[in-house]
Write the C-alpha cells for this entry.
Amino acid sequence: MGTEAGTLITGGTAAEIADSVRALVERGHLSPGEVLPPVRSLAEHLGVNRNTAVAAYRTLARSGVVVSQGRAGTRVAQRSQVPQEGFAAAGSLRDVGTGNPDPDLIPDLGPALATAAGRGHVLYGEPTIDRDLKAWAREWIAPDVPANPRDLHLTLTSGAVDAVERLLAQALLRDDTVALEDPCFLASIHLAQLGGYRAVPVPVDAEGMTVDGLRTALDQGARAVVSTPRAQNPTGASLSARRAAALREVLAPHPYVLVIQDDYFSYLSRRPFHSIVGPDHQRWALVRSVSKFAGPDMCLAVTACDAETAARLELRLSPGTTWVSHLLQRVTHSVMTDESALSLIERAGAHYAERNASFADLLTQRGLPVEAGDGMSLWVPLPVPARDVAERLTRRGWLVRTGDEFRLEQSEEPSHHLRLTVHDLAEREAAALASDLTEAVDEAR
C-alpha cells in the first residue's frame, strides 16, 4: 500500500479520511515530504470508492496538508524556509546583501509624529482612510490607473506585501495558478508558498516581464499576475513603454485575470511608470508603498483597484479589525507633504542610482560588465556559479546574496548572479569590494 504510516489511515468518507491524515501529520506519524498511498491502494485498503479517496486528497491539498505531484504521487507538504529581505546572520562580515535604504536619507519622523498625535483620537466607525491622506493618495496614484479619477477606489494596507497577500487571497484558492516574475522578490515567493498557489515563473529581462513568459503563464491557467513595473527586485529592471504595450496586448483576451502592479519604488525611481493594464481590463490593482523612502517601519501602502476588488478588500479591512492606524496615516501625510522631506527623498533616489552606476563602472573596468538598473541594489552577472564566488567573498569579509535565493523553482543549475547593495559603501570600500569580487571570480574559473 505504501509507507508503513500510510496503513494507519482510517475513515469511510472523504471527510473522515482527510481528518485521519491530518491527525497523523500533526502527531508526527506522517513526516513532511513523505509519500502517501496511491489513490487506488488507499481505496482498496479502506474499502471505499476510488472517488472518495480522490476527494479526501483534494481536500487535504486545498488545506495545504499535502501536495499533489502528478505521477510522482501525493506527499505531505514541507514547510521550507524562505530567506528574508534585509536579514542575514552576518557576524563580523560586511553585509552587502541587505536591500535596505540608507537611514541618513530617510526623513525625520519626529515633527510629523508630534503633529499627528496632537490631532485627537480616532474612534470606531470613522472612515478607514484619513481625509487628508486620501486626498494626497488620490493625487499620487490617479494618473497611473485605467479608471476615471472620479471612480477611483482606494484601499490602505499595512505595506505592499500585505496588499499583495490580501489581493491574492480574495482572488485565488489553493492550487490556483499565479504568474510571478523569475527571479522573484523574496516576499512573493513566500506568499505563494503560504497561500498554496501554483507559481508559474515568468522570466525577466532588461525591459521587465517577458511577453512569451506571460503568454505561457496565461495558457497554463494563471488567474493572477504580479508585476513590478519599476526597479524589479532583484534585477532592477523597469518596464519599457514598448514592453508594457506588448504585455497589455497579451492580457487583452484575459480581462478577468487579476493584474497586480507592485510599484514599491515609485518616488525613488529614476524611470517612468508604464502600466500593463489596459483601459478595458476588469480586475486590476496598483500598489504603492511608502516604506522604501519613508522608512521600513512605515508599514503603509496605497492600493487603487477596480470596484469589485476594492469591495472584497474592504471587507477584510473594516474598522475594529485590521484597518491601518490613523496615527500612521497622519504621519505619512505630514512627511509626504513636507518640502524638506520630499527634497531628501529626491536626493535619496539620485544617490541610489549614482552609487549603483558607479559600482557597475568599477566592475566593468575590471572585466565584469554590469548594467545598472533601477532600485536599491545591483544585479551582477557572473561567468561562473555565484555560490562559488559568494564562498570566496565570505573568506574576504563580505556577505552577499546569490541569485539562487530569488528563484521560484529549485534547479540543479546554479545561478550566475549576485544581488549587491552597495549604496552605503565609501569609495575605498567600494573599490575593495570590486577588487575582491573580480579576484573571487578569477579563482572560481
